[in-house]
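Blackboard transcription, Thursday session:
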Amino acid sequence: MNNLPPPKPVDPINAEFWQSCQDSVLRFQRCTECDTFRHLPRYMCYKCGSFDYEWAPVSGKGTIYSWTATHQVFHPSFDVPSLSIIVDFPEGIRMVSVMPGVKAEQIELGTEVQVTFKPLNDEFVLPVFELAQ
Amino acid sequence: MNFSNKTAIVGVAETEYVKGTERTAVDMMLAAARDAIREAGLKPEDVDGLCPPPVYTTSEEIAANLGIPVLRYASTVHMGGASPTTAIQNAATAIASGVAETIVVVLGWNGYSALRPKPGRPPSRKMGMTTLANTMKDFYIPYGVMLPVQMYAWLATRHKEMYNVPDEAMAEIAIACRHHASMNEKAFFKDRPLDMQGYMDARYISEPFRLNDCCLETDGACAVVITSAERAKDLPNKPVYIMGAAEGHPYPADDIASREDPFKIGLSYAAERAFGMAGIKPTDVDFLEVYDCFTYVVLLQLEAMGFAERGAVYDFVKDGNIQLGGKYPLNTHGGLLAEAHCWGLNHVVEATRQLRGECGERQVPNAELCAVTGWGDLGDGSIAILRN
Ligand SMILES: [Zn+2]
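(Written on the board underneath:)
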């Protein structure tokens, strides 16, 4: 990741997710009616139908659910090989991210990982993952 | 009401499949649609329904160009590569219920040229695909995940790690498609044989996908004409009846990462319904045309249809079982991997020709029953069961 452009969501609910972690704390939407976490961001709770939610901080610890090491250059901003992952969180949600500097050989299903924050420019940090200590 | 056996495919056509063309997607779709209607022994004014793709054009534009004065049914499916086969279902339901009598399903695109614009030439019409754009743009692309090869690699990695599926299973799909393409004049990879060593030696694109796990990017179009079983009797071609069809969507359909069971794909829901409507078991089919954007996607669909237990698909695809001469020849034209990428409507065209007995060297002997599948947009699925 050399000159990665920050995400510029059109949809306001998606923009809230990226704004919510700019203080380097990972947060996900949590329904304030039934406490169910959700990700991707949604306008309403799929469990109870409530439109009320908060951005609740999580530990950022999870496990590897799947991965791919991409070798083909698809965009000049991304170094290859790039290890993109799906992280499984104990809160019952999953998210897509990357593990900069980590090789596929270092992980397997269930490997413990934790969030860290990578500045893309002076104004934006991107949540990425590293091997749990 | 059930539309089983009430409709038939009576005409098919394709443009040439190429890498690089001056022709626009609309131009190619119109040519394929015109030729399919002619091949059916019909005229454009006999057509009263259109199912174009969710990109590049509209029913209105196609009708205006072809000269279809009375359009009683215009329907577009938003399921990516699963759209054309779902459109077969939609056409069959519309005809069986009397909404329309004769419908053209058409698909064409600049799958090569749109990605490689020529300097100095005006930009061609935008593809305008909106499905999934938000999820990908806002949550995958910020991490460098911008193409299906990467997203479907997550599915493949999890499946092969959980069930110890060897790379040879993926190779069997690539090799079978390439072998079948060698008998297909239209196939882009007609003269490009592939063996196990060649498969394994190729570079990785996005693990576990090597170069030959990935389908072609081609320009081209094809079209299929469907009419009532009653009308089909009076037309020149041997009718190919639609015994059953169904669509299905994984949950949630718009995020590949969040599914409780990632291998419960759209086809997992659709297959049982389609085979049930047809009144046959999956193992009754004589051959298979399975959407093959990537080899592993075929493996997942074979399991979803019940040809193998979860994780046991290698046993189904090995030992020549899916090659011509085997029990279930798969993608007898070469598929998206070796013929051309026409969103799988070329699979419907091939199935139709096989069931008419027109396939020469690659003809499946005594072909009577076929399952055609579609896959798109992170795992949406569609299936049509066809018979002669
Ligand atoms: Zn709730």
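Lecturer's comment: Chain A has one helix and eight strands.
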